[in-house]
Specification:
binds 3-isopropylmalic acid; EC 1.1.1.83; binds manganese (II) ion; IsoPropMal-DH-like_dom; 12 strands; oxidoreductase; Isopropylmalate Dehydrogenase; binds nicotinamide-adenine-dinucleotide; 358 residues; 2 domains; ten-stranded mixed beta sheet; alpha/beta; metal-binding; 40% helix; two-stranded antiparallel ribbon
């Protein structure tokens, strides 16, 4: 039997608290379905490492990680000691870029037992995916700062959209939409105001859409799209967006569905030549770190997505994924629940309850 090799990086803040619960759930499901996993833990890509070494990761980080099938990742960032752009560009964003994790797949679902901040919504009403372009767009390193400190100071950062980069994320999103009952794709741009890159994205959507005659395509400008997320979330099925808009929509969506504490993500290199990365959507949450009250569900769900990915179509792994989701649903209904869901449970007790339910 294949033994899957997984790299584990817990990172900063609540990353250290939620990753053990993610592993507990993945282990329970792996045991139940006869899946073998070998973990290797890495104690870098966190701000404590930066304090000691002046960098977030060892110089050979790529070689250390490239042979793993997947990376199970907590969160990075401790802005009190290291500026966020330094810690994130020195770790997570490097993984996304250098491992070519061009898909950031982020499910948004109103789960049973989770109070919805939008009136009159029930589970099933909100059930869509944000498919975020994850390697280019606004997150480019091209630009610079001139005449620093003078009143002529100029700061420029370019957005980069390549045909290869746009087409491959659109293809992924259209394939996903085609596989779902609603067969509906929504594309987010701002082509009325950002008049070069965004109309280009729209143009590629039109070209790609022609190859998916059975998928209905809607295009929205990002401003009104955020309003529809709040007012008409039932409208969405697969929402594809450039990097920055996808980032924003993937916090807004889960907030509309109750809490970002349950929102998972898969950073995928669908070619599987380099490791894909699975992590909660949320960050290191310094405001609640060290208290054992972070919701572990986002990380546990990300672990379920990782198992599904490892299976690459093998039904046993899909069953393991589904068993974790069923256990999450059970515990969201019956408790214990963390304070973001109005409960008084803690990270460990929620994690243990989910593992037991698996
Ligand atoms: P955040 O997601 O860390 O926290 C936002 C708010 O949501 C906080 O009030 C926090 O307590 C709450 N929250 C987040 N996760 C929760 C959970 N699992 N359970 C309960 N409540 C939860 O976002 P932020 O405050 O903007 O960022 C904090 C740090 O994390 C920064 O350094 C930021 O750059 C970093 N960050 C990292 C990632 C990542 O590693 N993927 C993602 C987002 C932010
Ligand atoms: C996310 C985060 C990251 C992003 C930050 C921490 C760089 O917000 O994964 O959503 O912007 O992609
Ligand atoms: Mn984000």
């Amino acid at each position: 039997m294949t033994k899957h090799k997984i790299a584990v990086i817990a990172g900063d803040g609540i990353g250290q608290e939620v990753i053990p619960e993610g592993l507990r759930a993945v282990d329970a499901a792996a045991k139940k379905f006869g899946i073998e996993i070998e973990y290797t833990h890495f104690d870098w890509a966190h701000c404590g490492y930066y304090a000691e070494h002046g960098k977030m990761m060892p110089d050979d980080w790529f070689d250390q990680l490239k042979g793993f099938e997947a990376i199970f990742f907590g969160a990075v960032g401790w802005p009190a000691t290291v500026p966020d752009h330094v810690s994130l560009r020195g770790s997570l964003l490097k993984f996304r870029r250098d491992f070519d994790l061009y898909v950031n797949l982020r499910p948004v679902r109103l789960m049973p037992g989770v109070p919805c901040p939008l009136a009159g919504r029930k589970p099933g009403d909100i059930d869509f995916y944000v498919v975020r372009e994850n390697t280019e767009g606004e997150y480019s390193s091209i630009g610079g700062r001139m005449y620093e400190g003078t009143d002529r100071e100029i700061v420029i950062q370019e957005s980069v959209f390549t045909r290869h980069g746009v087409d491959r994320i659109l293809k992924f999103a259209y394939d996903l939409a085609q596989s779902r009952p609603k067969k509906h794709l929504t594309s987010a741009t701002k082509s009325n105001g950002i008049a070069i890159t965004m109309p280009y994205w729209d143009e590629r959507v039109e070209a790609m859409g022609k190859q998916y005659g059975d998928v209905k395509t809607d295009k929205y400008h990002i401003d009104i799209l955020t309003a529809h997320f709040v007012l008409n979330p039932q409208r969405f099925d697969v929402v594809v967006a450039p990097n920055l808009f996808g980032d924003i929509l993937s916090d807004l969506g889960p907030a509309c569905a109750g809490t970002i504490g349950i929102a998972p993500s898969a950073n995928l290199n669908p070619d599987r030549k380099l490791p894909s990365l699975f992590e909660p959507v949320h960050g290191s949450a310094p405001d609640i770190a060290g208290k054992n009250i972070a919701n572990p569900v986002a990380t546990i769900w990300s672990g379920a997505m990782m198992l599904d990915f490892l299976g690459n179509g093998n039904p046993k792994y899909k069953q393991a994924h589904d068993a974790i989701l069923a256990a999450i649903e059970k515990v969201l209904v019956e408790g214990p629940k963390t304070p973001d869901l109005g409960g008084s449970g803690d990270t460990t007790s929620v994690g243990k309850a989910i593992a037991a339910a698996i």
